[in-house]
């Protein structure tokens, strides 16, 4: 079993900052990728930021230059630093991870429970 636990959401004013955390626990051999998605009311879930096992990153155009994804491998944790927040960033943010539980095991997808980010104007 693998669990992803998210934290760090909350209410901030436009222009403010928040840092989200996603900690993976359970039987883990390696985490091959972790990424962040968000879903606003009435909208489809969208990819926000990715972190590959090699340390590569990618961002949606809407957040590039404002959001930064990072990781702490010793804690199996990925972070999303969100700066210059805008009201349109308001959404539930979900952590996603691709996890191997053994050396030659399959890679499986796991999702966090989501954390609410609300940006007021």
What does this structure look like?
The radius of gyration is 14 Å and the shape is elongated. It is mostly beta strands. The strands form two sheets. Strands 2, 4, 5, 6, 9, 10 and 11 form a seven-stranded mixed beta sheet that branches. Strands 1-3-8-7 form a four-stranded antiparallel beta sheet, with no helix packed on it. The mean pLDDT is about 95. About 30% of the residues are buried.
Summarize, please:
With 121 residues, the protein is mainly beta. The protein has strands spanning 2-7, 10-13, 18-26, 30-39, 46-52, 57-59, 67-72, 77-82, 91-100, 107-111, 115-120.
Structure characteristics:
single chain; mainly beta; 7-stranded mixed beta sheet; 4-stranded antiparallel beta sheet; elongated
Biggest β-sheet, characterized?
Answer: 7 strands, mixed
Number of strands: 11
**Helix- and strand-based class?**
mainly beta
Fraction of residues in helices?
Answer: under 10%
Low-confidence stretches: none
Strand content: over 45%
What is the element string, with H for helices and E for strands?
EEEEEEEEEEE
Q: How far apart lie the N and C ends? A: 41 Å
């Amino acid at each position: 079993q693998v669990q992803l636990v998210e934290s760090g959401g909350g209410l901030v004013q436009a222009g403010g900052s928040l840092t989200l955390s996603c900690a993976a626990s359970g039987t883990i051999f390696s985490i091959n990728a972790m990424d962040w998605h968000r879903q606003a009311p009435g909208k489809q879930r969208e990819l926000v930021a990715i972190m590959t096992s090699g340390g590569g990153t990618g961002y949606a155009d809407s957040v590039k230059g404002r959001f930064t994804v990072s990781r702490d491998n010793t804690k199996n944790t990925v972070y999303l630093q969100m700066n210059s927040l805008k009201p349109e960033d308001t959404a539930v943010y979900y952590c996603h991870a691709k996890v191997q539980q053994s050396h030659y095991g399959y890679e499986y997808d796991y999702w966090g429970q989501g954390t609410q980010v609300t940006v007021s104007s």
